[in-house]
Amino acid sequence: MRNIKRLYQRLLRQYPVGTQAVQAGILMGLGDQIAQNFIDNSKTIDFVRTMQFAGIGFFISGPVTRTWYGILDKYIGSKSYSVAIKKVACDQLFFAPIFLTVLLISIGICQGKDIERLKIKLKNEYSDILINNYKLWPMVQLVNFSLVPLHYQTLVVQSVALLWNSYISYRTSLDKHNKFI
After folding, report:
1. Do the Cβ atoms of 118 and 109 come closer than 8 Å?
2. How far apart are alpha carbons 56 and 131 in whole angstroms?
3. Can you tell me the mean pLDDT for 28-44?
4. For residues 10-21, average pLDDT
5. How does DSSP classify residue 148?
6. Which helix (H) or strand (E) segment is 159 a member of?
7. DSSP-derived secondary structure letter, 114
8. What's the predicted TM-score (pTM) here?
9. 57-78 CB burial, b ≥16 within 10 A, e <16
10. Mean of pLDDT values over 10-18
């Protein structure tokens, strides 16, 4: 186990964005599997959907999140409780609404939705998901930005996001049986 930890730390130092992209892909795919197995109670597993979620984690969530945390660290700082509060405010007021939009659009595209159906889906789902975001993420981010070194912040967020991704996967798959959304 110690060797795995050393390898992970070395990869984080040498390839921070790539390492965190891989971990985000794995955890987003796992979040979808949790949704399918335990929330949706699917009789058959949709592995294409899981790979789509993993791809979104690998290509979007991991790199974007790590880059965003680096920007916050560079321009706001990394120490003190007041710095953490500023980071949470920026994260939740600027990043979260935009990132959630990108995430929902990406999932919609993977589901084969056209522009009109994407607009309808965003109109119907975005506000509710954003409100639920604000119930969870400000406290998680306050702890994350206050106590966790920058190179581990994405791992902390992606670990908590395992459950969040299950929720997103479940919410975005609700319309599979509704031809109007």
Report:
1. yes
2. 22
3. 88
4. 94
5. S
6. helix 150-173
7. -
8. 0.89
9. bbebbbbbbbebbbebbeebee
10. 94
Token code pair at residue 52? 């789509």
Q: How far apart are CA 159 and CA 34, in angstroms?
A: 13
Tokens linked to 116: 């009109």
Opening angle at CA 99, ends 94 and 105, nearest 5: 140
Do 113 and 175 touch, CB atoms closer than 8 A? no
Tell the residue number behind the tokens 């916050």, with chain if given. 72
Cβ neighbours of 179 (radius 10 Å): 7
Tokens of 143: 């702890």
The full DSSP string for 41-101 is --SS--HHHHHHHHHHIIIIIHHHHHHHHHHHHHHH-SSSHHHHHHHHHHIIIIIHHHHHH
According to the model, what pLDDT value does residue 172 have? 87
* pLDDT tens-digit readout, 105-130: 999 999 999 999 999 999 999 999 99
In the predicted model, what is the mean pLDDT of residues 4-27? 94
